[in-house]
Amino acid sequence: MTQTTDTFRLTEAVAKGKQLRESGQYDAAESLFRQIAEQLPNRRVGWLGLGQVLLDQLKAADAVIAFEHAMKVQGPTAELHHAMASAKSFLGRLLEAEAHYAEALALKPRHADFFHNYARIKKFTEVDGVHRSIEELLEDPTYSEQERCHLHFAAGKIYDDFGAFDQAFEHFLAGNEAKEASFDQDHWRGLVDSSIQFFDFATLKRIRSPPRPTADLVFIVGMPRSGTTLVEQIVSSHSDVFGAGELPDLNVISGELTKHSPSELRFPYSVNDVDETTFIGLGNFYLQRIQELATGPAKVFCDKSPNNFFFIGLMHALFPNVRVIHCRRHPMDTSLSCYVTNFKKGQEYSYDLDDIAVYYGQYDRLMRYWDEVSTIPIMHVDYEKLVEDQEGVSRKLIEFSGLDWQQECLSFQRNQRVVATASNWQVRQPLYRGSVGRWRNYARHLGPLCDSLLQQGVPVSFENNTQDSTGT
């Protein structure tokens, strides 16, 4: 076999692996890249691809090993340092991650995404070279809108760290405008209307999954940036709990129901076309998947995809042993935190203040409805009360999850599980009050947001949220 043929086949295999990754076929992609790495152990591309697909599956420790192999065989590159930084940040090894981001920027000092991710995990206390470099790059008209988006969010985060909130907001505003996201307010209202119309009390009672011995599930839901990662970190610090992070499965299952519907109805109306046996099968498939993800034995499994609040009706049909923890935070703080976060994917509403208000209003409306009709236990947890009384609220969380108290749940920052959300820096720190009332720093810019929330019927109190955090 000629070298040219070998190179061609390697290029084909790598392209196939990337295609499998992009389509979400992670097992197949991992198998292919592992085969490349084993057959060509002295080539970087197999190890790099393997590490990336392992990271896609939140196997961050294994990804670090793969990236280390890649560095050994062909030396460090900017891309490898960046990949290693991502993996180590997921593992909570933040100082090491910072060092890798710095190395990546030293090798590629004009890479916008490197700046964005570096700024996201680092607490800046003074103006430094990173800040100056970002400001200089923003003067360059050759950058794409996506690159400018990354740079503006990075600059906004740094100014926020400095306490220069007016300058920070200017950058966040520019970053959100550069994002070019699209959110259909009427479509979202229609989805919530459909759920409320379809899932009345009689329907929820009729479709309720029959009792059977299964693992206990806890879904942690709410608006993004409302404390869902923190709550999962606390609950999963218990030795009998596995925190799976944000799983897309309920959204996928809701789409699958259409395939099982003879009338090809869309969710939620497709629920009427699906029999109990099919729902049991779909529920068991989810349970098997979350148990396979677990890194050890567990009695309770957590899924903290915030947007699963939309699927509480579907949960009734899928799972017999399920609870919901609903995380709440002051609407202004939640909305601001969404607005200043450049999400990796989804959350299209979060790049415009009016869109955020509409999304929040419908979310709030749906959660209030679930409170009225759900037969699944729902516990409401206010972020402000958790900060004020960490042990008291934490004990109630563990009790609600059906477990006995363990003192380790108060030291959640020591939990070494993988955290891949935008809050992965915060949950590695002890609980602090700095995020309570954060919106006040930007009050002069948030009048339109406040007005929009009020128009959506969202109670915007200028005091901290005082709703009962023990309600079920």
UniProtKB/TrEMBL annotation:
Q: Name one Pfam family in it.
A: Sulfotransfer_3
Q: What is the lineage of its organism?
A: Bacteria, Pseudomonadati, Planctomycetota, Planctomycetia, Pirellulales
Which of UniProt's keywords are assigned here? Transferase
Q: In which domain of life is the source organism classified?
A: Bacteria
What is the designated name of this protein? Sulfotransferase domain protein
Q: Which GO terms describe its molecular function?
A: protein-tyrosine sulfotransferase activity
